[in-house]
């Protein structure tokens, strides 16, 4: 094997090792015009739902909508938003999330998010689990959610609007 081939093989192996070392859920996933960026959730507690967050970017010229999600081991999965009712923040179910053409939509703590009810498993930090997102135009996209104590550049905790008013 020539020195050039050895160097090329070493570089390819190093690149593969680097990709394998990255958390799978932290990578962008592109299907058609849609890119799903960093799907994540916080560790869940017994008898408490999981909230899932990510950003969907649409590089296409046609809008799309996130209309459903499914995953084994959950009783129900719903899209939610947080609304302000006076000084109280409440969670409200939404039927779909619009992804504008050339734009994006973000699911994040304190805003739009996906609630996973009735988890049959506790997911500690570092765990991963699959979900399938259903878009009106693009169809189904399989993602892997990474469980993290804090998501990418997130400062506030999730939990607001889940049955209690924030304390002053």
Summarize the topology.
Elements: H1 3-21, E1 29-31, E2 34-41, E3 50-58, E4 64-70, E5 76-85, E6 88-94, E7 97-99, E8 104-107, E9 113-117, E10 128-135, E11 139-147
Parallel strand pairs: 2-11
Antiparallel strand pairs: 1-2, 2-3, 3-8, 3-9, 4-7, 4-10, 5-6, 5-9, 10-11
Sum up the structure in keywords:
single chain, eleven-stranded mixed sheet, mainly beta, 168 residues
Outline the structure in words.
- The structure is a single chain.
- The chain is mainly beta.
- It contains 1 helix and 11 strands.
- The chain has one helix spanning 3-21, and strands at 29-31, 34-41, 50-58, 64-70, 76-85, 88-94, 97-99, 104-107, 113-117, 128-135, 139-147.
- A hairpin with a 2-residue loop joins strand 1 and strand 2.
- It starts with a helix and ends in a 21-residue tail after the last strand.
Total number of helical segments?
1
Give me the Rg, rounded.
19 Å
What fraction of residues sit in β-strands? Answer: 35-45%
Helix and strand string, N-terminal first? HEEEEEEEEEEE
| Number of E-state strands | 11
Helix content: 10-25%
The main β sheet shows up as:
11 strands, mixed
The outline comes out as globular
Q: Unreliable segments (pLDDT under 50, ≥5 consecutive)? A: 2-25, 154-168
Assembly status: single chain
The separation of the N and C termini measures 69 Å
Mean pLDDT figure: 81
Return the structural class.
mainly beta
